[in-house]
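Page 37, continued from 36.
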């Protein structure tokens, strides 16, 4: 995986993915300068996710979609879009959880912990089932983190039973959709 991370990007799409990563880094500085240190901290958490595609060795289109979605999710918090736009929270949970679950599946396949999507003997249903399960697990962990944040850090974090169940349902549906995509579209830049 380190060799994949260190590989020089090839082609316009791969360089575009690198530009999105740079945009994420510049976003941390912008959040610190024009918003608050807390907002900069929220955006900086996205930096961890932005390097995962490089380690996983995914195709540039998936890399770009993944990174942009993670940045949209982070900046939606900074810009209070979750509170100001109706259903935005569900849209982001659908898209972001789906892409995170697909990326988690690719990483697990790279580590030989799950079958690679197009490897000989891998059934087409395997990615659908595994990506959906990963997405539901990620949704549950995220909602627990929100609860911990509200309980121990900032009581103004919006957490209700309805919100939690809705977020998990949207994330699960996003992961199911992503599972179908993983089973039909090659996301890895080379075989596992």
């Amino acid at each position: 995986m380190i060799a994949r991370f260190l590989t020089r990007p090839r082609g316009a799409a791969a360089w575009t993915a690198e530009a999105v990563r740079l945009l994420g880094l510049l976003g941390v500085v912008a959040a610190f300068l024009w918003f608050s240190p807390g907002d900069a901290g929220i955006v900086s958490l996205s930096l961890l996710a932005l390097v995962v595609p490089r380690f996983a060795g995914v195709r540039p289109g998936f890399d770009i979609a993944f990174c942009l979605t993670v940045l949209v999710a982070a900046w939606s918090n900074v810009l209070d879009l979750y509170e100001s736009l109706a259903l935005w929270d569900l849209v982001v949970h659908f898209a972001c959880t789906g892409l995170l679950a697909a990326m988690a599946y690719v990483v697990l396949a790279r580590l030989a912990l799950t079958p690679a999507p197009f490897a000989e003997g891998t059934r087409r249903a395997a990615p659908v089932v595994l990506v959906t399960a990963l997405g539901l697990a990620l949704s549950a962990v995220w909602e627990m983190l929100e609860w911990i944040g509200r309980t121990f850090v900032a009581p103004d974090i919006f957490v209700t039973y309805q919100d939690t169940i809705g977020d998990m349902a949207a994330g699960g549906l996003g992961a199911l959709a992503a599972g179908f995509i993983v089973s039909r579209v090659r996301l890895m830049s080379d075989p596992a």
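Residues 125-153 form the longest helix (29 residues). Flag for discussion at group meeting. The two ends are 10 Å apart (CA to CA).
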